[in-house]
Amino acid sequence: MNWRISTFVLLFILGVSCKQQEESSKDTNPIIHVQKSPLVEAEQLKSNLNNVAYTIVDFRKPEQFKKGHLPNAINIWRNDIENPDFPYKGVIASKEQLEKLFSKLSIKNEDTLLIYDDRGLCDAARLWWVLSAYNFTKVKLLNGGLRAWQKAGGQLTTEIQTRGQSNFKLSAKKEMLFYTTKEEIKQKSNWILIDARTHEEFSGKRQKLGASKAGRIPNSRFLDWSETVDYEGTMKFKSLQELAQLYNKSGVTKNDTIVTYCHTGVRSAHTTFVLTQLLGFKNVKNYDGSWVEWSYYGDLPIKKDSSTVILQ
Q: What pLDDT was estimated at residue 48?
């Protein structure tokens, strides 16, 4: 009886082992383990750059891009994804504007975009948010951006790709993801507002160019976006435990509806990325118009704690 049981156990173990080996043999791409992650590490990208299935986007000013960028990267900057038909800057581009831009850059609907910048992914997160708002979610960020790439020994190039034309189309869904407006904020008194700017902007001590007044939206909570990254070091995101502790101190929970805002919705897009993509919060909205829009309208309430110096 015992030898029969032993034989059965041995056959079971051998069967499991063969199955694991078979599955392991399919796993030849070192990046495959981060496919479900919103982040890609520079070391992983560098080791597989020639075979990577990403369209790499350098989200910096064109003059910076021309001085050196990741191989095969294409360049997009803030003004490319803004709608100029407003009396203040920074408003999200229309669906038609984005479709025209992405078609010109030969970006296809089946592409997965990998975006980087040189500012702790603050700018890159804005492009992530713009695309997410229109329900295009095949987007990842290069953790640590340009600094991490260079630290990993990655090379830069000044060569600019010649690309053809595509027919890029965004989703027909009317509901925008991670998006809200000043009208909704005025109506929802139970929403938690997080101001992702500097404390000087939050207090009203500094007024950045483009804002009509200094201050903040009443009842906002302050949490500078840069606290979520190792800004003076690697430029990478802090650990999930550190990020969770940071927001726990702000008193927010995953059951809350959270609205993030900043000056023009860039830094708050980064905060939205951290909350939704890294920490798993479900009810997060980025206020696109942010402070430049809120301060533009004289009938909207503001709060400030300090005399103001206009910051150019």
A: 86
CA R_g for the chain:
23
Q: Are strands 284-287 and 258-261 parallel, antiparallel or unpaired?
A: parallel
- CA dist 95 and 77 (Å) reads 17
On whether the 179-311 domain is CATH 3.30.200.20, my answer is no
Q: What topology is assigned to 32-151 in CATH?
A: Oxidized Rhodanese; domain 1 (3.40.250)
Contact 45/114 with Cβ under 8 angstroms?
yes
Tokens of 105: 């850059």
What are the residues whose beta carbons fall under 8 Å from the beta carbon of 120, sequence distance 6 or more?
Answer: 145, 226, 229, 231, 235, 270
- Tokens standing for residue 38: 């919103």
Residue-wise pLDDT for 2-11, tens only, equals: 444 344 433 3
- Identical fold for domains 32-151 and 179-311, yes or no, is yes
Paired with 303 in beta bridges are 216
pLDDT tens, position by position, 11-47 = 333 343 444 443 333 332 222 233 479 999 999 999 9
What's residue 33's pLDDT? 32
The predicted structure's pLDDT at residue 312: 56
Closest CA to 284 of 302, 269, 266: 269
Neighbours of 89 (CB within 10 A): 16
Cα gap 196→265, rounded to integer Å:
9
C-alpha–C-alpha distance, residues 263 and 224, integer Å: 12
> Are 1 and 103 within 8 A, CB to CB?
no
pTM of the entire predicted model: 0.86
Nearest to 264 by CA among 175, 196, 176, 203: 196
Cβ contact 247:278 at 8 Å? no
AA letter at 213: K
- Ordered by start, the domain boundaries in the chain are 32-151, 179-311
- Which whole number is the average pLDDT over 280-297? 97
